Structures are given as structure tokens and as C-alpha cells.
Amino acid sequence: MLLNIMKGVSILAVVLGFLLTLSACGKQPQGLHLEGMQGTALWHVTITDAPVAVSGDELQSGLEKTMAASNKLIATWDQDSEISRFNQYQGGDWFAVSADLAKLVDTTLQISAQSGGVYDVTVGPLIKLWGFASHDSAKDVVPGQAEIDATRAKVGYQKLQVRLDPPALRKSRPDVLVELASVADGFAADQVGLYLESRGVKQYMVEVAGEIRTRGLSPRGDDWRIAIEKPIEEGQAVQQGIELKDAGLATSGDYRNYFIQGGKRYSHTIDPATGYPVTYNLASVSVLAANATLADAYATTLMASGEEKGKAFAEQHGISAYFIWRTDQGFATDETAGFKQAMIAGE
Fold it and tell me: Which Gene Ontology molecular function entries are recorded, alphabetically (predicted)?
């Protein structure tokens, strides 16, 4: 994302969007429920059609291994992950990577080009400069302009190339860094979903640090009911309920990761074009897409674009999105036609 890059565990600091499963008529849904933590990312899985031939313990073990494998591909906090090894590479030749990583980077580069660089997975150096990397402890220092300009020279999705066959990455300068925190949780949710499908599961919901993938129906026999969080800084409250089926959902927001200096608020969402945090009134964006990876990337893109340009971009490209922004009277909301179809009336 532009910035969100440190969301999850890792980094994605951005998003978050705490999403809750809504129960219908007070009934607690049945089904198999599994959960765990990988790094700093909490994950939850609900399975409607748990396979008889596979035990819950076996599925739990498989899910934990899948989450760990995702981190080994894209977690920059792990110096031995695949993306970290590429970031450490100082050469200009093609660097061999797995097919999964190459496909993921290809997706992010397509969205980078589509957004004109608003979304950029090479923005990591700026995230770190502003103190929003997951491993940073301080977030209250505004960098000098010279530092920002020098760091911006390392950033730019055009400096990164991907090859799918054979899978490899290449950078035009050795100090280019790829930060995939903006899609890390969505990617992990999709990988978990694919694992479940490989074990014969066809109806499930996966949630990884707020990013969601659903397939089939809920244990109640209807679409999965999910709540989008109100972007308040203290506590948790539901802003809007939606129904999902065979879709991914992700939320990006600025209300959890920011600092205030000199009376000015600085969020973790960085504009690569200026090197500064964006200053829109937009508090959060939720996106529906075919999978959680796309939803995650587009949520970051729209968050970085602001409420007006973000809405225009979403409508132009057929993205189902829900916007919440701050006004003097409280929060205001808007949504695209595609997202409106998923909203639960009265929620």
C-alpha cells in the first residue's frame, strides 16, 4: 500500500479494520472453529462442512503450517524470508523466487501501474523513515526534508520487475526494498483458504488480522455476516454489517497507527509522490473483491487516495468499496453500487 505497509504483523500497519462475525437472531453458529497466532497476526477459521476424514487437530496443524509458510515468503521482519533475501540482494540480475511470490508481486505491480503509483510496494524505506515499521519503537519524529528526498530516491514501483516463468524478481538499484505488508494478511487468508480447499472444505470463512476470505455458506445456511468496525480510536463498535459469499474483504484505516506532533496528525499511510503521510479526512476504506489479496491491496490504494479521488477510482475500475471519513459533525459514509448490494439494511 502505500503505506500500509506494515500492517499486520509485520507491518501492515495499516489496515486493520476489526471485522466481527455477526450472528443472526442471537443464534451462535455451529461448525468447526479454529484459531491461532502467527507472528503478531491473530487468525480465525470457521468451517461449515468439516470433512469427516480429517480431524480438527490435523486441520489446525495444517493451518499453522500454512500461516508460517506465508510468512516465510513475505515477512520482512524475518531476515530469512524469501522477500527479505531479495531485499538484501545487491545485484542487478534476476533473483529466483517461488511462483507464489512472483505472482503476488506481479499483482501488486499491476495495481501500482493502475493507480499511477498511489499504491507502491517499494515505499518501505519511507515507512521506516517515519517510524511506522513494525519493529520501530518510536513514532513521534518528523523527518527533515533532505532525509525525505534522499529516501524517496529509493522508492518507485518502476524500479522493480517481475518474471513469472521462471519466477524471479529484479531491481534497478540495490537499495530498492519490497514491502508486502499491504497485502500480507489478505495473502495469508487466501493461502489458508486454498489449503482448506485442498482438504475438501468448500464452505468456510478465514479471518487473518481483520482481512477475510469466504467461500460457500455459513453454518446457519446463509451468507457470511460480517461487521465493519467504526473507526474510533478507543474501544470497538460496529459501523456497518454486510453479507459475503465467495468473496474477500479487507479494511484499511488510519485510526490505530499514527502520531501527533505540533498539533498535526501523521498517519502511517505515506504518499510516495511526496514522501509525507497523507492528510485526507478519510478514516477507513473497506473493499470487496474476488479474493482477500486484491481486497487488501485496493483498500490500501483507496485509503491513500482520499475520499474523493478514492471513490472516483473505485467507480472507474469497478471496485466495490465503502468509505468512512471524518467531519465536524462526526463520521460520514459513502459506498459504490457494488458494495451497497452487500450491505445489511438497518446495520
Answer: transferase activity
Half-sphere exposure of 284 (CA within 13 A, CB side): 26
Name the domain boundary from 181, 197, 219: 181
Give the Å distances, CA to CA, from 154 to 43, 150, 158, 245, 337: 34, 7, 11, 41, 38
How far apart CA 307 and CA 327 sit, in angstroms, is 12
Give backbone dihedrals phi and psi of 145, rounded to 5 degrees, phi first.
-60, -35
Compute the distance between CA of residue 272 and CA of residue 268 in angstroms, rounded to an integer. Answer: 12
Task: Give 317's pLDDT tier (boundaries 50, 70, 90).
Answer: very high
Q: What percent of the chain is modeled with pLDDT above 90?
A: 68
Are residue 319 and residue 200 in the same domain, yes or no?
A: yes
- Inter-residue contact 26 to 194 (CB < 8 Å): no
Main-chain dihedrals φ then ψ at residue 83, nearest 5 degrees: -70, -35
Instruction: Give pLDDT tens digits for 28-47.
Output: 556 899 999 987 789 999 99
User: Rounded to whole angstroms, how far apart are CA atoms 120 and 109?
Assistant: 8
Cell numbers that stand for 75 in this block: 515477512
Q: Where is 38: in which H helix or E strand?
A: strand 32-38
Global pTM reads 0.89
**Digit-coded pLDDT (tens) for 223-248:** 999 999 888 877 788 999 999 999 99
Claim to verify: residue 93 and residue 61 sit in the same structural domain: no
Give the DSSP letter of residue 277. B
**CATH number of the domain encompassing residue 125:** 1.10.3980.10
- Among residues of the chain, what percentage have pLDDT more than 70? 84
**Would residue 152 count as lying in a domain?**
yes
Q: What number of residues does the chain have?
A: 347
CA 242, CA 227: separation in Å to the nearest integer? 6
The boundaries of the domain holding residue 116 are 74-181
Tell me which DSSP letter residue 12 carries.
B
